Amino acid sequence: MAPLSLLLSVLSVLSTIAAEYVEYDTSSHIIPGMINVHLVPHTHDDVGWLKTVDQYYVGSNNSIQGASVQNVLDSVVQALLSDKNRKFIYVEQAFFQRWWNQQSDAMKSIVKELISSGQLEFINGGMCMHDEATTHYIDMIDQTTLGHRFIKKEFNKIPRIGWQIDPFGHSAVQAYLLSTEVGFDALYFFRIDYQDKQNRKNLKNLETVWRGSKTFGSSSDIFTGIFPNSYEPPTGFHFEVNDKDPIVQDDIDLFDYNVQERVNDFVETAMAQANITRTNHIMWTMGTDFMYQYANTWFRQMDKLIHYVKKDGRVNALYSTPSIYTDAKYAANESWPLKTGDFFPYADQTNAYWTGYFTSRPSIKGYVRSLSAYYLASRQLEFLMGRIHSGFGTDSLADALAIAQHHDAVTGTEKQHVANDYAKRLAIGYAKAEKLVGLALASLSESSSNKNCQKPTTKFEQCLLLNITYCPASEVSISDGKSKAILVYNSIGWKREEIIRIPVSSEHFVVTDSDGRKIETQLLPIDDTSLGLRSYYVQAYLKKSPTSTPKFWLAFSVSVPPLGFSTYFISAAEKKGTESTISKLHKYHGNIDNIEIGQGNLKLSYNGAGILNQYFNNRSLVKEPVEQSYSYYTGDDGLGRDPQADGAYIFRPNGSFPISYPGQMAIEVMKGPILDEVHQSINPWIYQITRVYKEKEYAEIEFVIGPIPVADEIGKEITTQITTTMVTNKTFYTDSNGRDFIKRIRDYRSDWNMEVNQPAAGNYYPINLGVYIEDERTELSILVDRSVGGSSLIDGQIELMLHRRLLFDDSRGVGEALNETVCVDDECSGLRIQGKFYFRIDPLGEGAKWRRSFGQEIYSPLLLAFSEQDGNSWEKTHLTTFSAINPSYNLPKNVAIITLQTLEKNSSVLFRLAHLYEVGEDKDLSVMAQVHLRMLFNDKNISTIREMNLSANQERSAMEKKRLVWKSEDSNAEKGSRGSPVDSSKLIVELAPMEIRTFIIEFDDTAIYCS
Ligand SMILES: [Zn+2]
Q1: Distance CA 187, CA 124 (A)
Q2: Which end of the chain has fewer beta carbons closer than 10 Å to its terminal beta carbon, N or C?
Q3: How far does the centroid of ligand 1 lie from the alpha carbon of residue 166, in Å?
Q4: How far does residue 303's CA lie from ligand 1's centre (Å)?
Q5: For residue 57, how far is its CA from the centre of ligand 1 (angstroms)?
Q6: How far, in Å, are 66, 161, 970 from residue 197 at the CA level?
């Protein structure tokens, strides 16, 4: 019998396995007086990192990482449809747009419904979650605008929340410009220094009001939430298919029933977080990288947790979003602790300062910066010509640049194949924009003879590889009767006088300006290092060898009107003696007499060993001993007691070594009427040219560094130092995303008592525009051509890190060593970097003029386009000079046009002006500026002008009405000044220091220029 009764009882258990249906109550809302746990379902989708953006989207290359954003979005929509209480946030528009374009109309209307009901909410809303250290503010604005305007157009929604959950430290510009001025109500992230975080936990200061701008004071305040641990769920609550955390097993008839344990875990975890958080609202970020590929695994567990936690009654759990959470924090009507400055540098452990990526992949950083300026200029030209729909334009470059701002793109922290993908996208975008620029310049220059707006016939060539001395258009020899026209475009609103340099093949020619006047020129023999770089990299990039070898750089001075161009002509010299001046060449070897260069106010002197030793300005009478040197750090291999290696993210040196000059340093000096150059082979893999232009008062240093030798199996990071005797008291200043300068003090943080573990890495800061030091008499400024890391590790000295080549992975996920190589055929060698930086010493209080106005000129170099012509008939058929603005007008030197872009409709234009100075920076230029739009848009009639928020997805006045104003514990309510609203009859825009104003302007007609 026994066997039978056993059998029966087994059957009875089995029969109850047809368990009953439980309807989970997921309708919880905020309950005042209880701890409210806001469950925020989210996915963090890197726009390229271990896989390319497209591989992540479609879910290919899964052997690297099992991730498909397509799956995420598909399954989230279904999961949301099955319970209207469920919510989800989505961030990266680059992915969302890829998905959206593939959906049926039926699916689109379903998704629109989810968005309009608030079940699906876009936050952050840019194309990517941009980095905050190595990005330029203009790029941050552009990529955010692209995403925000899409969301507005397609869904009529305006993102309310900044969600920078993964970037490696946080900038002041992100807080005030890309959050407050965008109209965000709050900003959330988690990566701050581990010491800072612990301190904030102790003080309940993880949530704070951040005042990112000195200039705008309390009007720049934004509520900022720092997650206590990471952007993942609390430990024990990860629910992707393969996650190991216990799910809620609530079927009493099945084994492992665990409802009470899981509820206890939930309550305990919530209470711990509540203990370090102000108010009774806490947020759980329910998701992480590429999660929700099978969304139900998450939602099923959250449904149950909300249901059973409610029954339990100790805390309250609800489906929420950062917007709901923010509103709850606001409703609490608290005063929050005040944070000023920024959150750099970021360290997650004692020896893990994330300051290496400030310099990682300097080639991508340089490429992004130069295309950023090209994008700005090409949109201007598209506007001036009128938008055309011919398959090329700026959209593709806009997309590529937007994606490149991602926190694993321009940062240099992606795998090599992904870096190649970004570069490919940029190259495709550039190629399309280049065609547009060529056509626009042809169209504008032919506009005098081309009244009927025929398709222009002039063909222009441009030279993206001028930095490696490659420009076929300028190198081609001029045969009899032919000449070359060089059109020089200036995208800045003020007139510029600069020296341009192009490679040429012979010396027998003359250069004339727009009026046919012969102008002074100088020829500088091209050095072997430049030629070597040129032939190797042209072969590597273009898969062909240059057909000829240029002999000289041809330098001459150009004068270019604002938002316009001038034309210069190179033609064969008619008789001997009329050609260019060839620079006087002096070669020195070993012990030499003192050398002095500089034909104008600035003189640089070199000592007997060929080392720079003095800076003297004849006009300002600044005379400073100054030395420039190179050194290198050796990268820690992570094989010691602390396994932290030096890598793509992290700067962890284990030694610093001067790069000594070889006993007999070869030094070549070229002197001429326009500029002097000092060429030095610092060692077999560092070559540098120091230039002093007669008419300029700064020194320009061009370097070629690499291949960094690693045969000793030690990774290295190459730095340069400018050393003075200035007494700088541990203090230096670095810019935030190319905008505000922030005071840095060595080994010191204003927010907590810092324990110094990494004296170099822990004092490195990102530099996008420049860095300066000052003492009682003078200030030394250095400006850069791309994002780099830098510091002042010794009083009186500034250091920049220019290149890094490392052999170990630093265990932050990328899984590769930062060891970049360039290959020709199958032979690869370490990457060589060509770049520039500029330095100048001014009397105290006079440096800002150069940093700001010249800084803008570095960002926006003159754009050169070349065309060949027969005879000298160009003037008859072309305008030789052009300016889009009234000839009697120049923009003031404290204002830049940072956006001038035709929108979908030809008569509608997105327009941004930026004041370039902070309050108190300069006695003449830190003042309210005025821009006369009638003069600027010469002969175009403005019919309406609307002032917008920074990302141009809402009117500024509406944004100001809506945006939450937070109370801080600081009672100082200084708001800083701003320009007054634009009177549409006067059309004058006022800009207060550091102000950026965004407008949408409608013009009456579009036919002023050919379109
Ligand atoms: Zn990320």
Answers
A1: 9
A2: N
A3: 5
A4: 27
A5: 15
A6: 32, 22, 21
Tell me, in angstroms, the distance from the centre of ligand 1 to residue 415's CA. Answer: 13
Instruction: Say how many Å lie between the CA of residue 420 and the centre of ligand 1.
Output: 18
The domain total for the chain is 3
Q: Which residue has the tokens 């506007």?
A: 383
pLDDT over 50 at 254, yes or no: yes
Tell if the pTM clears 0.70, that is, is over it: yes
Nearest to 46 by CA among 766, 953, 812, 809: 812
For residue 5, what pLDDT is reported? Answer: 47
Per-residue confidence (pLDDT) for residue 14, from 0 to 100: 46
pLDDT in tens, 790-805: 999 999 999 999 999 9
Is residue 921 domain-shared with residue 836, that is, in the same domain? Answer: no
Tell me if 820 is assigned to some domain: yes
Given pLDDT bands bounded at 50, 70 and 90, which one contains residue 869? confident
Ligand 1 geometric centre to CA of 44 (Å) = 6
Residue 575, in any domain of the structure = no
State whether 831 and 950 are in the same domain.
no
Q: How many whole angstroms from 949 Cα to the centroid of ligand 1?
A: 27
Interval between CA 765 and ligand 1 midpoint (Å): 21
Ligand 1 centroid to residue 591 C-alpha, Å: 54
Model confidence over 385-416: pLDDT tens digits?
887 766 678 999 999 999 999 999 999 999 99
CATH number at residue 653: 2.70.98.30
Cα 51 to middle of ligand 1, angstroms: 12
Domain range for residue 820?
Answer: 583-844
Please indicate, yes or no, if residue 385 is contained in any of the structural domains: no
Write the CATH number for 916.
2.60.40.1360
Reported confidence tier of residue 610, pLDDT bands at 50, 70, 90: confident
Query: Comparing C-alpha atoms, which of 24, 23, 44, 36 is closest to residue 266?
Result: 36
Would you say 115 and 157 are in contact if contact means Cβ atoms under 8 Å apart?
yes
3-state SS record for 31-56: CCCCCEEEEEECCECCCCCCCCHHHH
Domain boundary among 844, 868, 886: 844
Q: Name the one residue in this structure whose structure tokens are 């959150």.
A: 343
Ligand 1 centroid – CA 141 distance (Å): 19
Whether residue 411 is contained in a domain is answered as no
Q: How far is the CA of 5 from the centre of ligand 1 (A)?
A: 59
